[in-house]
Give the backbone structure.
Amino acid sequence: MITGTGFVGGNIAAKFVDEGVSVTALDLKPKVLDFLEAAEKSRKLSFAKGDTRSFRLIEELVKAEKPRILIHTATFLNPTEAYDTFEVNVRGTANVLELARRYDLTMVYLSSGAIYGQMNGTADICEDEKFGPAYPPREGIDNVSGAPYCMSKRLGEEWVAMYRALYGLRAVALRLAWVYGRGITDYRLNTAISLFLRKAIVKEEVHIPYGGDTFVDFVHVSDVADIVYNAATLPVPKDFAFNVAYERGSRFSELIDVTKSVVPGAKLSLGPGLWPSKGVPIPRGGPSFPSERHMSIERAKASLAYSPKFDLEAGVRNYLQWIEKNWDISSPEAVPFPKWG
């Protein structure tokens, strides 16, 4: 059973179906992405409409479907209100956890690299490192909505860890880097890769005097799906939390170069400096805290057989193919671009 059928949850569902596992997907607004159509027709994948804040609804679904594994992806992605973020990301997690305990389910909790907060230095971030501050946001750098999101993921992880310690719940938390790939139909869910690819496809020039030095840990959604499957099916590891990223981070300037290499003729450029979170038509995107620090994946390699396959160029090329195939729901007509100032 998977809570959330967005692009991350959808790709995870596809991975489990490909491995011969039947999946029930719960979402407020279930949608069948193109790569899930065959699975739904084969009845290996079923959809249920519902809200993770409703304990009774989820329990009825668990009783009916009798899952062995519960993957919790449902989250408030772009929060603007701290209360709503708490309700979905914390209360919803508490509901799912209690059901996993009562019905003896293996649980994988999708956390976020945003959990680390405002980090200084340049060394790789390891899972046991002390978190940095989440608030107040750094003026001009941190997205104001990042603080509630960061805190909600910290609370969620603490609750999962407590259930694991007190009740022996089979559970792990995966701290995802900036996920991209097939299934994102709206550039606003991943402003950098999605926006630049769409601009390049329609041959619209983008020349921005800032942003090229912004450091980001990207990870392709297929690599995320692989480690989620491993975390759900391998013996429960000794450690609880795992970073999920690529082998190294990238800068936006590299993303521009990669985009130009996969879309010949693209006219894109960024100047030096960071991409600000305020005062620009498109914010940096998502509740992230920019730093110079890559999230180490050594623990995930050792304990969860994690081996990311998509470097940035391969991942962007793969994503481009999906966008072109689904242009009717990805084009500027379907998701209008903003006007640059």
The CA atoms of residues 73 and 308 lie 20 Å apart.
